[in-house]
Amino acid sequence: MRRSLLCWYGAQGRDLPWRRSRDPYAIWVSEIMLQQTQVKTVIPYYERWLAQFPTVTALAAADQTQVLKAWEGLGYYARARNLHRAAQVIVEQHGGQFPADLSTALTLPGIGRTTAGGILSAAFNQPVPILDGNVKRVLARLLAVAVPPNRALAALWQASEALLDPQRPRDFNQALMDLGATCCTPRNPACLLCPWQPHCLAHQRNMQNELPIAETRAPLPHKQIGVAVIWNEQGHILIDRRKPEGLLGGLWEFPGGKIEPGETVQDCIRREIWEELGIEIEVGDRLIVIDHAYTHFRVTLNVYHCRHLSGDPQPIECDEVRWVTAAELDQFPFPKANLQIIAAIRAAST
DNA sequence: GATCCGTGGTG
DNA sequence: TCACCAAGGAT
């Protein structure tokens, strides 16, 4: 079984930038970026990141705004914050070298069992198993697991470890992920091309389209949000930096908040700006309406031009506030939905 | 152990 | 349009 998979990998494996490297730092960066994120999305971010932060020392020395700006648009921003912190730990406590043993790697922020296995096998050819989304699906089909994969984690980890090739753990783990990504796909798997088809219980039972069993999910709530683009008499715009933890932590945004039942958008914006920044504004024309979906809810951003009337903005429910020119907005990391607001501001002023 | 955490691709 | 999913981890 190992040989058939490795043979398939030799012929069908993907040529990916990080596979050409044995630098633990570069491989680590790729593993973090690839969490819940597709290869095609990651590649340009990976290339830019290594050009900007070529070593763990360079990353450790960067400031968080630079780091978040380089991550802007990738999502799950805690990954960038943790990567940054871990780089500082590696410089301060591990002599600038990524730890080569599993238990130490697992102490670093942002590194769990799968990521640690991915790094240690790829960088050091250590026989450490992995269990990412691809491997869960491959093994759930191979073994015809009768419950959602997340209800069978112990068995799946055991299988990943038992199957792992002790001679070629690097290639084996990469092969297993490629098999899931390109052959044993979520829908319409290419069983005829699969090296493990003779061993696959799902295929033998013609259940490859029914497995793995899907997790049940709650419906997504939908929130209406009022957002203010506040101008002062100098033609500057007010932005704020979100608190360092939680949703979009550390990123900048245009201030606003949730519209309460029975409240107009304009009332909401005036109230939120008073509560969060302690200033009075006049709500003017509508700038843009943006629908955006997060993992656990959807939002509609109702964005309005506003005019500053009185008061000095205070960081009451955020970390920092700042008046900036439209040209300066590019220097700050914003969430994706806010980039649309910036584009609308530019379009409206030309 | 259930929830939280972004964004883009896909059928 | 929409649900599902992607090289998961932290709390």
TrEMBL record:
Residues covered by the Nudix hydrolase domain: 220-347
Cofactor(s) required, per the database record: [4Fe-4S] cluster; Mg(2+)
Pfam families: EndIII_4Fe-2S, HhH-GPD, NUDIX_4
Statement: the UniProt record of this protein carries the keyword Methyltransferase: no
Coiled coil: none
Enzyme class, broadest EC rank: hydrolase
Keywords assigned by UniProt, alphabetized: 4Fe-4S, DNA damage, DNA repair, Glycosidase, Hydrolase, Iron, Iron-sulfur, Magnesium, Metal-binding
Enzyme Commission code: 3.2.2.31
Residues binding Mg(2+), per UniProt: 256, 276
GO-annotated molecular function: 4 iron, 4 sulfur cluster binding; 8-oxo-7,8-dihydroguanine DNA N-glycosylase activity; 8-oxo-7,8-dihydroguanosine triphosphate pyrophosphatase activity; adenine/guanine mispair binding; metal ion binding; oxidized purine DNA binding; purine-specific mismatch base pair DNA N-glycosylase activity
Alphabetized CDD domains for the sequence: ENDO3c (cd00056), NUDIX_MutT_NudA_like (cd03425)
The reaction(s) this protein catalyses: Hydrolyzes free adenine bases from 7,8-dihydro-8-oxoguanine:adenine mismatched double-stranded DNA, leaving an apurinic site
GO BP terms in the entry: base-excision repair; mismatch repair
UniProt-listed NCBIfam families: mutt, mutY
Family: Belongs to the Nth/MutY family.
Name of the protein described by the UniProt record: Adenine DNA glycosylase
Native source species: Thermoleptolyngbya sichuanensis A183
UniProt lineage: Bacteria, Bacillati, Cyanobacteriota, Cyanophyceae, Oculatellales
